Amino acid sequence: MRLFAIFGDPVEHSRSPLMHNLAFKALRFNACYTRVHLKDGSKLRERFLDLSLSGANVTVPHKEEAFKACDEVRGYAKKLGVVNTIVLEDGKLIGYNTDADGFVHSIAEFTRIKRVLLLGSGGTAKALAPKLTECGYKVVVLNRSQNGLDHLRSAGIECYTHDEFSSHNFDLVLNTTSAGLSDDSLPAREDLLRDLLQSALLAYDVIYGKMTPFLELAKSLGVEYKDGSSMLLAQGVLANRLFTQNLFSVDEIEPEMRRSFLL
Ligand code: NDP
Question: Do residue 86 and residue 176 come from a single domain?
């Protein structure tokens, strides 16, 4: 039996084990998927090999360490410097990124969205901002500190810290920070968020499975909102295809993974 895992800190909230295990079972792929609480991201490679994993997903805050842990990085992840999926191939750790395609898929139905304000500049922001720009959206990044902004600026993205920023109109306000994941904080000052949300078509939080303070604020203002479930599903389907070496199509994997959201 092949063993897969998700690495993160925190990781208890992750739905990935349920999603992948349901798909493996339904597709009769002999594998099991678990979670590993990893505090020190620099130990990722060592833990992956110690556990004899065939593949892994990586979540907050280790996606950049995951890039460094790989022997080879393929596709979009190479350009981004951020890895969320690792597959063992001939004894080597091969890195991929499925978050960006998963996210773009999840907003395809909102055809009026043109301008995006992306909150945060961590691993998820580094995956999504260049991809959204490539797909024709106008993207501005806002973070509480300078962390990660130079990297995004070097990819041609307009970036500000909270102190430098003055509000404009955005169609989508997208929270990619971990504010609200395991605390009650908002990703930016409430007055600024109110101002931004009042003119937005959609508030989107990549955190899934809970009403974060950010989504509560959007709801209280009557703004349409969405959590990260559909992104999670889409990135998971793409990761599962990599884990199962493309033996199954998206149409075979997706309904099985979707079932996990009903449990
Ligand atoms: P990182 O740790 O790489 O980045 C976190 C970002 O959040 C940084 O920009 C950090 O700012 C900012 N931040 C953290 N706390 C606060 C706060 N209280 N107020 C304002 N900003 C804050 O995390 P990731 O990018 O890997 O993940 C971010 C979130 O996205 C997680 O909650 C994760 O679960 C979720 N996610 C969901 C996915 C899905 O499929 N739905 C896929 C991928 C991620 P600074 O640098 O200044 O500290």
Answer: no
